[in-house]
Each structure stands twice: as structure tokens, then as C-alpha cells.
Design a protein that fits this description.
Two copies of one chain form a homodimer.
Chain A (H helix, E strand, L loop, with lengths): L10 E6 L10 H9 L2 E5 H7 L5 E5 L4 H13 L3 E6 L8 H11 L9 E5 L4 H9 E2 L5 E5 L7 H13 L3 E5 L9 H12 L5 E6 L8 E6 L12 E5 L5 E4 L5 E4 L9
Parallel strand pairs in A: 1-4, 1-5, 2-3, 2-4, 6-13, 7-8
Antiparallel strand pairs in A: 8-11, 9-10, 9-11, 12-13
Amino acid sequence: MSGDDGRPLGRLSVVGVGPAGPEWLTPEVAARLEAATDLVGYGPYLERIAGAHHRVHASDNREELARATHALDMAAEGRDVAVVSGGDPGVFAMAAAIFEALEGAPAGRWEDVEVDVAPGVSAMQAAAARLGAPLGNDFCVISLSDNLKPWSLIQRRVRLAAEADFAMAFYNPISRSRPWQLGEALGIVREVQGPDTLVVLATAVGRGEREDVQISTLGEVDPAAANMSTLVIVGATSTRVLERPSGRRHVYTPRYVEAAQ
Amino acid sequence: MSGDDGRPLGRLSVVGVGPAGPEWLTPEVAARLEAATDLVGYGPYLERIAGAHHRVHASDNREELARATHALDMAAEGRDVAVVSGGDPGVFAMAAAIFEALEGAPAGRWEDVEVDVAPGVSAMQAAAARLGAPLGNDFCVISLSDNLKPWSLIQRRVRLAAEADFAMAFYNPISRSRPWQLGEALGIVREVQGPDTLVVLATAVGRGEREDVQISTLGEVDPAAANMSTLVIVGATSTRVLERPSGRRHVYTPRYVEAAQ
């Protein structure tokens, strides 16, 4: 492609390939990947979807802004670049990083690059579907990582969300350098909600034998059972377990809330 | 299928077909629809996906519990039933209604029916992708309908979400019988956040010429411009517009929040 003045017109697609496997990858994303000349993203995601015609640019999962810059540079050279996120690129993933890079760019840099975002199934949705419908009423979505925002803000958001009796989905609950944050966040909820409030640790949902879903409560959960692949769901007051005759346990939040609450 | 004692074993899949068009329908959902003998859901969703081999059971969009009962009855007869939601069935949709019906059932009813949920792209994700990344940091998801919960609880949740400086996605913002709720909810946010806070009315995203995305502010938005097909996004303090040299306007929320905030 080229513009009226002969300069190349690049394209950058920010796509979400879902939290695991091809069954959650949308046709829109499949088409954008097929059209792309270059794939940019975290190595394990790219391995799942790279084709023979792709140039693959794998990077570490923490270098989002450097990755965004590299992707925009290639698009400005006229390549058709797909920036790949697991889950949904709009939920704690690469879409915001691309716009941060664009906004911080010197005037004129990347000005011919067109950016499009294609949504995907996010980890909280895959976890929720496995369980039943724990996010079936109002809910909040919070990243517990304080790499890019102050921990005091995260504390405040968790506390207000508990006071509002939202169900919650926690992303980035724990890492090697942040082993204490999930426990502290659950402790904040515990100051507001009862010990029987449901907590689910949903790890690697959709990834076969690695998948592990633990249904627990605020009073009993062990935060150390979570890892970087865990999506944490904290129930609202009305969230409950439904055990079926088969023994299977579902977790869901009804659509209704009684006026008495 | 039949069990050891010869009784039919039914299957019920609750599936999300995305907010529009086939490009957001996952392969998992496509496979479940293909396997299903019976489709249950809101008529316009079913028209999008019914095949020649399906028995189609269309109903009005407000009769979720009656629809759930009908679907479970058919599954108990040994049919392979797909209950179809637009968007994600776990977000203000049919998954919770199915579990409500199961929990309220007399002992023994539907006991052999196995229920599975398949996630889909939700309306907020399609809207967010069209805009850029407005939900790129912590956010809340709230249904403004008080059909099933008290309006006082919705008011409280909106106020606490504003105090927490979450971005927000409002589902069911308005209907013929509830023309005032979106305006009142935005008014609550306005008591906490400044008039420059971004508000987006994203109507019928993905539905061709019907799609209409309006970027406005708390100070200027006209709630009457929303309808039943509108997904409303209210920005956090840090949510901003990025206008590209092409004239295209993106809305995004950075991943970072300054400590000063």
C-alpha cells in the first residue's frame, strides 16, 4: 500500500487470541492474523498462532511499550503488523500500550499508521463460563499489579468495590516480585464482606491438564495457591454455589438482588 | 444419548454469539450450535445463526426465566439444546437465568441435564475495540435496569464506582419504560467527577449502517441519544481522546495512573 505521495501506509491490528486454544479465537482475529506480514507479542502467544508466512517478533511479557514502538515502526515501513494479546487486547493488554506510544510520539512519527483493535474472549469470561455465571450481575475488573499505578489506588478501588457489593475479577493477582498483593486485596474485601463470600482461583482455564479451578471462600482461601496464570473471582453477597446431582459445582450470581439487601 | 437406566441424558449449552455478525462468533460456539438440535433465544439472535437442522424456539427478550425452563425441559427429554445470548451469556444474559431456574427447581427435575457455558465477545468489548481501549485500566460493568434489583442499589454502585475512579460500562441504559435512568446515573457520576469526563454512546456496534458511536462528556452528553442497543462507557479521570492525523478519534485509558492522582 502507499499514500498519494508514495509513502508506505502501514497497518497495525491489535488482536486478542483468547485465553487459550483456537476454540476462543474469533474469525475476525483469524482473518487479521492471516493478512498480517508480522506478528508482535509475547512468545508463547505467538507460538500458538504463527503461520509460515509470518515474520515473528517475540518479546518478554513485561516490555509492552518497547513492543508497541517496534510494532508501530514496522507498520510505518508499510508492513501489515498484528500485535497479539492473549485474551482481549482491551483488558489489561496491548491496546492501551499502543495508544500510549502513539500519544507520546513526536509530531509526525507514525502519522500514516492506521490502528484497529479486534476484541477477544478475556480470561475472566473463560473462567466465568467454566464456573457457570459468577459475573452474571454487576461486577468490577481490577489489575492487582502496582507496576504502573500506586498500590494505594488499588486498595481504594478494592475497598469501594466491596462496599458496592460488586463481584470482582482480579487480573495479575500475584507474581514472583509481588507475592503479597492478592492476600492483602482479599483482606480488604474481608473487612467489608463476610468470611463466606466466595472466592475462585481459576488457573490456566482452557489449557488442558494445566487447568485448575478452586472454589473457596474469603475465610478459607490460600492466596499462595494462585500464580501468574490465575484469574481470581470474588463473589458478591448473592453469589452462590449450585451443586448438581452429578456432583459438579457451579458458581453463579443471580440477575436479581432482593430489595432487602 | 441415554443413561445407565435408559433415561435420556440431555445437554444444554448456553452460548454467546457476540454482539453482531459472524466475525465475533467463536469456533467453540459454532461447534455447539452445529451439534445442537434445538435453539432457544431472542428471535433476532436466532435468525442470525439458525441452520436447516435446527428446531428454533424464539421468544421475547424479557422472558428469560420462562425461556430457561423451556430449554431445560427439552434437554431433559434428551434434546441437545443451545440457549443463545447475544454478546457473552455470562454478562447480563442467559447463563445466570439458567442457574436460577436450576436452583429453584423441585428435587429431581432436570437432574440429568448437563449444563455448559461457552463465552462470547460482549458488547462492551466490541464497543471498546471500536474506540481504542477505553477499558484499558480498572473498570466496572453495571446494568442500569431495575427490573430485577432496586434502583437504590444501582445508584449506590454507580456512586461508589465514580468515587473509585473506575471507567464504567453501562448495559441496559434505557428503554421505553425506563427513559430516565441513564440521565440519573450520569448525574450521580457528575456529582463526583468533572464535566470533562468522557462519555461514549456506542450503539449497535458491528451492525453496519446502524452503528453509531458518539464521543461526548458528562457535561454535554444527551442521554436521550441512547437506546436499547446502546452500550454506554463512562471514562475514568485518565481516560482521554487521541485524535490521529487522519482525523480519526480514539478513546483510551492508559495502563498507568500517576501517583499524584
